[in-house]
Amino acid sequence: MVRRKADARSIDSSRTARSDKSRTDVVVDRRKIQKAHILKEIRYFRKSVKLLIPKLPFARIVKEIMTDLFPRSDVRRVQESALEALQEATEAYLVQFFEDCVLLSQHGKRVTLQIQDMILMRRLRGRDDIINK
């Protein structure tokens, strides 16, 4: 028997039709994947003890602030241990500040942290807080 093109197409189309019927499409919500990834990242950073801000950009900012505050002084170098201590204190302050701001947003029955939470947090901490000086 001789095959013809029409027969070959009908065989191929019947195979693809069967495979399309047996194939199931899974719809994945991208927001759930993104939320899971964010939560995984949060758990990772909670377990880690390393510094979150890169050292070199932080050192540049510290040196820039030093030259702005003390333009006449010839201090151009900072010890690595002093920078590390300053960075640890800075990160601890920022983490505490954001934790308090999140508590304020939860008190407002919101999930999203807004700028008004940060402004209120600064006011609640008072004038003695380092950020308000």
Automatic annotation (TrEMBL):
Residues 35-124 form the Core Histone H2A/H2B/H3 domain. GO terms for cellular component: nucleosome. One of its GO terms (molecular function) is structural constituent of chromatin. InterPro entries: H2A/H2B/H3, Histone-fold, Histone_H3/CENP-A. Belongs to the histone H3 family. This is Histone H3.1/H3.2-like. It comes from Bombus bifarius.
